[in-house]
Amino acid sequence: MELAVGGGMRRSASHTSLSESDDFELTRLLSKPRINVERQRSFDDRSLSDVSHSGGYGRGGFDGMYSPGGGLRSLVGTPASSALHSFEPHPIVGDAWEALRRSLVFFRGQPLGTVAAVDHASEEVLNYDQVFVRDFVPSALAFLMNGEPDIVKNFLLKTLLLQGWEKKVDRFKLGEGAMPASFKVMHDAKKGVETLHADFGESAIGRVAPVDSGFWWIILLRAYTKTTGDMTLAETPECQKGMRLILSLCLSEGFDTFPTLLCADGCCMIDRRMGVYGYPIEIQALFFMALRCALQMLKHDNEGKEFVEKIATRLHALSYHMRSYFWLDFQQLNDIYRYKTEEYSHTAVNKFNVIPDSIPDWLFDFMPCQGGFFIGNVSPARMDFRWFALGNMIAILSSLATPEQSVAIMDLIEERWEELIGEMPLKICYPAIENHEWRIVTGCDPKNTRWSYHNGGSWPVLLWLLTAACIKTGRPQIARRAIDLAERRLLKDGWPEYYDGKLGRYVGKQARKFQTWSIAGYLVAKMMLEDPSHLGMISLEEDKAMLKPVLKRSASWTN
Ligand code: GLC
Fold first, then answer.
1. Which H helix or E strand runs over 183?
2. Does 134 sit in the ligand 1 pocket, CB within 6 Å?
3. Between residues 47 and 141, the one the model is more confident about
4. Integer Cα distance of 43 and 76 in angstroms
5. Distance CA 191, CA 178 (A)
6. Whole domain around residue 502: which residue ranges?
7. 186 class by beta-carbon count within 10 Å (0-12 exposed, 13-18 middle, 19+ buried)
8. Which of 161, 164, 279, 325 has its CA 20 to 30 A from that of 210?
9. Mutate to test the pocket of ligand 1, among 135, 442, 509, 517 (most ligand atoms within 8 A of CB)
10. Partners of residue 384 on adjacent β-strands
11. What is the torsion angle, in degrees rounded to the nearest 10, for the CA atoms of residue 100, residue 103, residue 106 and residue 110?
12. Please, are residues 33 and 1 in contact by the beta-carbon 8 Å criterion?
């Protein structure tokens, strides 16, 4: 096979942080192979070097940047039927690009981000006219895949400036590293100036600071670096400092006995009270991924070295904790069901004193013989057994999940298709909480009633994460099925933010239309399925050093 070595890597003398394997990984990504290899195999980072690439940046076509189905498409890991699809772009793709471009926000003449929704029909704008950091991620990936990295670079640099602000909620000063949930461009027509206004949680509902923003920022910086081959951005003192500030917030020592990150309810995509306080899977998976991305980009200089060491230690403990205690499959469930309680000492099997009676009834039917998932939360005497999409997909992409666990997560999705995908991919979590539990957990939140919004609603944005996970685990046909479902409704329904109901059949009660991340999520899913080599920008290869056997919690097990 012939490999065309693409854009060279520049590295400053002090940039010694990339290990041999990371270095190799990046080099391979930058290599754009020329020939098409037709082979069916699991598609992880490893295979990035041996698939065909559909061509460089800036292909002609829509807006001079987008060419539907243009260029040579890879057939690797894609069933023949979907390969056929990739040559025949779906008619809604063009509409999606137009809608995405309409959501662009400019700052001093340069595109800087995309607003959360461009819904003219909606009476209340609330904060949907802002650029949300987490919402911008799928937009950014779409632009990167389409050869438009400048907007991503601008976003990364400007959000760094926002991070530099002094952040206060009442009289309390937030940590230096906090990244905003969202920001807005303010126009002063009189003075003819534009300024940025950011929200770090001080205006948010519930006043929660977003823990995920900083992690997404680091993950996006790596995606930019990996796609463009431009390492100079990540190497700037500003980006290095930005990363260190985010990291010092989450690597600081406290009283915690767990390597997971302690959080307030609503500090992530689920930004309202939903019982996701403590150690929510979404944050733990993003934390893990951000740590791994930072490890690849941090310089081993005087300031960076200390962080590199801390990250390595934390990753080791975090992966062990997550793979052992958050993991649930048929066997684990059966073991927990038979747990003894009140075990004192180091040899305790039931370490967190989980009372088997707290296992909810639905779980016994839901758990297939084949398949498994990372549960929502683990803390003393509390296991939140709900399934959350984002955390599980990120666990696959970051290789927090072992290869076996990744396969099991995908098996579960196939086995429980109706529950998790239904008529619109993808449930944000499963199942919904109802009645008394809903009152207690959500505080009677009328937006989060059962099977709506964050409480078991279906979010099209999650399609890109599902697709990426499918490609990584070599099961593109699952993504194909899900995309087909989405294509039947999304344009017709005006790109809603979410769908309601057990099957996700109804446009969400209070869903915005023309929700940008629903649009971008669809485009990213589409482009990734057509050209799986895009996966590398958002996926990390397994780190063998981290691989530890999952604990078998049989009664005979001792520490
Ligand atoms: C809602 C979602 C949040 C998203 C925001 C903007 O608040 O819960 O995840 O970032 O809308 O779309």
1. strand 182-188
2. yes
3. 141
4. 8
5. 30
6. 91-537
7. exposed
8. 325
9. 135
10. 377
11. 0
12. yes
Q: Report the CATH number at residue 473.
A: 1.50.10.10
Q: Is the CB of 132 under 6 A from ligand 1?
A: yes
CA distance 39 to 304: 41
Q: Are 521 and 463 in contact (CB under 8 A)?
A: yes
Q: Say whether pLDDT at 48 is over 90.
A: no
- Domain membership of residue 445 (yes or no) is yes
Question: How would you write 491-505 as a 3-class SS string?
Answer: CCCCCCCCEECCCCC
Contact 279, 288 (CB under 8 A): no
DSSP string, 222-261: HHHHHHH---HHHHSHHHHHHHHHHHHHHH---S-SSSSP
| Tokens representing residue 110 in the block | 């340069």
CA distance 144 to 224: 7
Tell me, yes or no, whether 468 lies in a domain: yes
Tokens in use for 186? 């303010």
Which residue from 64, 12, 93 is spatially nearest to 299, judged by alpha carbons?
Answer: 12
- Residues 6 or more apart whose CB falls under 8 angstroms from that of 296 comprise 17, 18, 22, 26, 222
**Residue 177 pLDDT:** 96
Enclosing H/E stretch for 312: helix 302-321
Whether residue 161 is contained in a domain is answered as yes
pLDDT of 45 above 60:
no
**φ and ψ at 13, to 5 degrees?**
-55, -35
Say which residue the tokens 């939903």 belong to: 274
Residue 38 predicted with pLDDT over 60: no
Q: How many domains does the chain have?
A: 1
Residue nearest atom 9 in ligand 1 by C-alpha distance = 269
Reply yes or no on whether the pLDDT at 196 is more than 80: yes
| Residue range 489-547, pLDDT digits in tens | 999 999 999 999 999 999 999 999 999 999 999 999 999 999 999 999 999 999 877 75
Is residue 451 in some structural domain?
A: yes
Q: Mutation test of ligand 1: which of 125, 269, 454 has the most ligand atoms closer than 8 Å to its C-beta?
A: 269
